[in-house]
Amino acid sequence: MVRNTWAANSSLFLRGSLAIGFIGFALSGVSRAEEEKELRVRSIAPDDSTRTSTAVIVPSGMNLAHTAQFLPLDERGSIIGPERAAEQAEVVLDRLESALKAAGTGLDRVVKVNVYAARTDVLPAFRTAFSARMTGQARPALTVVVGILAHPEALVAIDAVAVTSEPVRPLASAPAGQRSGAALAILPAEARVYVSGQAEPSTDLAEATRGTLKSLDKTLAYLGLDKSHVVQLKAFLEPMSAAAVVEREMTTFFGAGAVPPLVYVEWRSSPTQPIEIELIASAGPRTEQTAVESLTPTGMKASPVFSKVVRVNRGHLIYLSGLYGSPQTKGTEQVEAIFKTLEKVLAETGSDFRHLAKATYYVTDDEASRALNDLRPKYYDAEIPPAASKAIVPGVGADGKTVTLDMIGVTIPHESANPPK
């Protein structure tokens, strides 16, 4: 059995109070104005053994570099280290580090990492490589999902979010060996929007992708934005072997050299819905409106369990590691435990269920999926639920567990919004 330390820590989270690590300085006696000036990331329950944290709070004044999903490929698109998970882990970390350096940041400023593994048994090799490389103070939040990757021989892939002093930069070229999509784009310290996954029906993947991109374009127009505001797209698709089809449609839609960073996740869906696409975009200057807004574009119907769009106007972002319930329990019990853990983390970070920006639910079976449908109304405010995507995937990175929750929250913006010391 493969033990996932991150998952184990999530399961045990409710047994104790949270520790809070402050990267670079201590907040004791620091005013809110001074804190804004210092702009320091705060790690919640940092774990030096895994080099990760349960959550990371990023001050609203920080720019955020969002990367593409990096695969272990050479410049020709061939796999590096076939069937050697440790070598592939080093390659994707090299790719990540190189992209971050080009944007004036680095591994020591990473706040969130998403890991995609072809099989659960490759995760120990990645954990070893990751821990060895994260030698700085950064203890990012981390989420794991298991499934076929965009190259059939790839065992591991990653994307990440890191703070950077650069407010904007031209889209960089595609990652080594990958056909389309910039290696990195920057989400400036302004208002930000998270658009839930959209999907237009078709049995043809290319047609479904085109239709979905047109739908997203309409959503951007409703928000007063355009393609140039998009910082990252995540596509849930089946089959993953057809990722090149999606890449071609992305290039046609955005234009050559203008495709934002792309992330791909294998999911299980119906033949008439082969793809769903979500996006993150910059939304211009902040306003004094509600910190978190739930928006429903024209022609769409509001849902009590997820917002079609969430706009974050104020407040610091909170990146959570993937949350898990207890292993070998029913889906309902796992989901209930996850939401109880989430409730505790939000309280400790100065947030609540009315200040959630984006949720991604990864489930491995219909039972866990139904449990999410049944339990979300119990916790979410129907007027302002998070933007969300839910994907049925082959695995969630931990034995005996069928669901994990990846969440981005927002601190409640008032004078005492700092987390407990």
UniProtKB/TrEMBL annotation:
Transmembrane spans: none
Top-level division of the source organism's lineage: Bacteria
InterPro entries reported in the protein's UniProt record: RutC-like_sf, YjgF/YER057c/UK114
UniProt cross-references to Pfam families, sorted A to Z: Ribonuc_L-PSP
Gene3D superfamilies (alphabetical): RutC-like
One of the record's GO cellular component terms: cytosol
Molecular function per GO: deaminase activity
Family, as annotated: Belongs to the RutC family.
Protein name: Putative translation initiation inhibitor, yjgF family
Natural source organism: Singulisphaera acidiphila (strain ATCC BAA-1392 / DSM 18658 / VKM B-2454 / MOB10)
